[in-house]
Amino acid sequence: MVNDGDTTARAKIRDCALRLFGEHGPDAVTVRDIAACARVSPGLVLHHFGSKQGLREAVDAHVMSIFDAMLASAAEDPDAFASGEPQAVAGFAEMFASQIPADSPIPGYLRRLLLSGDPVGRHLFRQWFQLTLSATDIMSANGNLQPTPDRDALAAFLLVNDLAMILLHDHVADAIGTDPLSPAGMRRWASIAFDVYLHGAFTKEDS
Question: Any idea which residues the entry calls the DNA-binding region (predicted)?
């Protein structure tokens, strides 16, 4: 589980900014809002970060460090990430769910990073794409994946399916009645995903 154990005032301010930025967007949040959330003075926010922009950069760096650690862990054992087993089909979403606490503000912040065209969001997506590309290469070499003439498009397709569960988390949970990132939800999602990937979702008409 991601938790750096930092309980300093600086970390508390950063974490409040992360939550508020994710909920409302950075432009709609003021230094006073962040100070009120952290129960400190606006002056202390500026003392630690210099400006709201400085605080936003600190939040971005914090989120990046969390995902860098996750990706480094996955890179150490790429075969497990690309095992082709049902529990691994959810790929990045499963890795995300196992590392990020259920009440974390990171999913909300991640949505804004990826959907707003933010440079940090583009950087993260590129990293995840490369990891997924490596995983599909391993699965192909192991015979767990059908040959494809367009490996980039396949990796992007699989990654987007994973990210949809994170970015549309609340809507998916409401639709299926289960938190898709909970252990039970991941098992349910992975079972369907594995069946669709392996057998397809549509029947073929007789020609």
Answer: 30-49
In the chain, what are the helix, strand and coil shares in percent, each to the nearest 5? Answer: 75, 0, 25
* Residues 162 and 93 sit within 8 Å (Cβ to Cβ): yes
Residue 1 inside a domain? The answer is: yes
Number of structural domains (the chain) is: 2
Helix axis angle, 151-167 to 92-99, nearest 10°: 40
Task: Please tell me whether residues 176 and 111 are part of one structural domain.
Answer: yes
**pLDDT per residue as tens digits for the range 70-126:** 777 766 665 555 555 544 545 667 777 777 877 888 888 888 888 888 888 898 899
User: What are the angstrom distances between the C-alpha of 66 and each of 72, 106, 110, 114, 144?
Assistant: 10, 10, 12, 16, 30
- 85 shares a domain with 55: no
- Do residues 89 and 190 share a domain? yes
CA atoms within 13 A on the CB side of 82: 23
Where in the sequence is the domain holding 134, given as residue range(s)? 77-198
**Per-residue pLDDT for 177 more than 90?**
yes
Q: Do 97 and 56 touch, CB atoms closer than 8 A?
A: no
State whether the Cα torsion 146-84-172-73 is positive or negative. Answer: negative
More confident residue, 19 or 158: 19
At 193, the pLDDT band (50, 70, 90 cuts) reads confident
Query: Token pair 């930025």 is at which residue?
Result: 21
